[in-house]
Amino acid sequence: MEKGVLKADVGMNGLTWNVVGQTYVPKLLTEDAFVWHATLPEGTFVPPHIHPTQDEWIYLLEGELEIEFPDEHCKARPGDTIRMPRGIAHGIFNRSGATAACMFGVSPARELYKLFTELDGVSDPQELVRLSALREVNFLPPPDAG
């Protein structure tokens, strides 16, 4: 990690990614952690998935998010920290009617930075699932329409 200040409107190496309709701006990457700023427009979501090798968290800066675990649904507001331990399925939804902004982090960093680089602009859900599985993020199958 380089010393110094990375300005608010700048990502590492000038990067900004569009991942599932959300804007991700990488802020810190070490072997131990990866941190990024995320802007989640209303109506966007990250489908339920599992990080088998990483703990993940979100610190909500503005807006509201809903987190769905298999046994619990939670709402988060500015100042709240959402904790998503490794191995536990979780989905992230913005159903608030407004944009949400937050800081995400994972530990250890593993392959997530590389995954976001590969997912930038990918719109095909099957390709997103395929690439994610190669980088230790496992999306759950959609529920039966039944």
Describe this structure in words.
Helix content is 12%, strand content 41%. It is mainly beta. The chain has one domain: Jelly Rolls, CATH 2.60.120. A hairpin with a 4-residue loop joins strand 2 and strand 3. The radius of gyration is 15 Å and the shape is globular. It starts with 16 loop residues before the first strand and ends in a 7-residue tail after the last strand.
Features:
2 helices; six-stranded antiparallel beta sheet; single chain; 146 residues; mainly beta
Number of domains: 1
CATH class: Mainly Beta
- State the end-to-end CA separation: 49 Å
Structural class: mainly beta
**Which geometry do the CA atoms define?**
globular
Kindly report the spatial arrangement of strands forming the biggest sheet: 1-2-3-10-5-8
The count of DSSP E runs of length 2 or more, i.e. the number of strands, is 11
